[in-house]
């Protein structure tokens, strides 16, 4: 029996019309109904801003803009899942896609049905929900951004302003690699040069307050050579 996936909006940005039609058909068979398509980066960004999709499937090689550029623009305001599609198979291209905030990287040719299941998996991972009290809950944490409070297992955490700001910032990009450069620019508003030790000190102090075992972090993990990631497991 076909199951309707309630109200999720999927935006597909790719210049190949046949591929757009194929993905749209497969996603509809998997229960999705609100599917938007664009064949240029500019059109895709316009739809993203006006329709607020829940997930974006994004080709890297577009006629007017690179998918990497579109990803960076989306990441300025949103933490929704982004799945890259690309004919590029080099490891450096995949790493760049993840470093810029992509959640998945699928090389062409691919199985449309597999892409549909990846879409479902990423939507599930991003399904942290605001409660009626406007509190965000995941794992042992309860976040009340309006009160600037974070609790773990019901106990209020004593976080310094920068620690709190870092945690809330990383929470906007769950399961995504955030470079030290981005952290420095968005948290301190300064150029990264000379801030490496400062960032490491603040990450260490934050881990000491939120991790069960700071020496073996479960939530804020280091991605060697790329940055840090706040790990949010499936519900």
Summing up helix and strand content along with how strands pair, one would put the structural category as alpha/beta
How many individual helices? 8
- CATH class value of the largest domain: Alpha Beta
Q: Averaged pLDDT, please? A: 85
- Share in helix: 25-40%
Provide key terms for this protein.
235 residues; 5-stranded parallel β-sheet; alpha/beta; Rossmann fold; 2 domains; 8 helices; disordered N terminus; 19% strand; 4-stranded antiparallel β-sheet; Arc Repressor Mutant, subunit A
Description:
The structure is a single chain. This protein has two domains: 9-125, Rossmann fold (3-Layer(aba) Sandwich), CATH 3.40.50; 136-230, Winged helix-like DNA-binding domain superfamily/Winged helix DNA-binding domain (Arc Repressor Mutant, subunit A, Orthogonal Bundle), CATH 1.10.10.10. It has 235 residues and is an alpha/beta fold. It has helices spanning 17-29, 41-51, 67-75, 91-99, 112-125, 161-171, 180-188, 196-210; strands at 9-13, 34-38, 55-59, 82-86, 104-107, 136-138, 141-144, 149-152, 155-156, 220-223, 227-230. Helix 2 packs parallel to helix 3 (67-75). Helix 1 (17-29) links the parallel strand 1 (9-13) and strand 2 (34-38). It has eight helices and eleven strands. The strands form three sheets. The chain has a five-stranded parallel β-sheet, with helices on both faces. It has a four-stranded antiparallel β-sheet with strand order 6-7-8-9, with no helix packed on it.
């Amino acid at each position: 029996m076909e199951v309707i996936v309630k109200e999720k909006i999927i935006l597909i940005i790719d210049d190949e019309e046949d591929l757009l039609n194929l993905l749209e058909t497969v996603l509809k068979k998997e229960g999705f109904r609100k599917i938007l398509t664009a064949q240029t980066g500019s059109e895709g960004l316009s739809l993203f801003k006006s329709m607020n999709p829940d997930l974006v499937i994004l080709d890297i090689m577009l006629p007017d803009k690179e998918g990497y550029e579109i990803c960076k623009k989306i990441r300025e305001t949103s933490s929704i899942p982004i799945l890259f599609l690309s004919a590029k198979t080099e490891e450096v291209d995949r790493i760049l896609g993840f470093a810029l905030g992509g959640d998945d990287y699928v090389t062409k040719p691919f199985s449309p049905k597999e892409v549909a299941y990846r879409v479902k998996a990423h939507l599930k991972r991003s399904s942290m929900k605001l409660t009626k009290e406007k509190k965000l809950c995941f794992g042992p944490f309860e976040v009340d951004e309006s009160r600037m409070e974070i609790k773990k297992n019901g106990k209020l955490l004593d976080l310094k302003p920068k620690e709190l700001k870092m945690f809330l910032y990383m929470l906007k990009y769950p399961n995504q690699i955030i470079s030290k450069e981005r952290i420095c620019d968005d948290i301190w508003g300064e150029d990264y040069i000379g801030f490496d030790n400062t960032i490491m000190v603040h990450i260490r102090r934050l881990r000491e307050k939120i991790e069960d075992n700071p020496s073996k972090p479960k939530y804020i993990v280091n991605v060697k050579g790329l940055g840090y990631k706040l790990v949010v497991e499936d519900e």
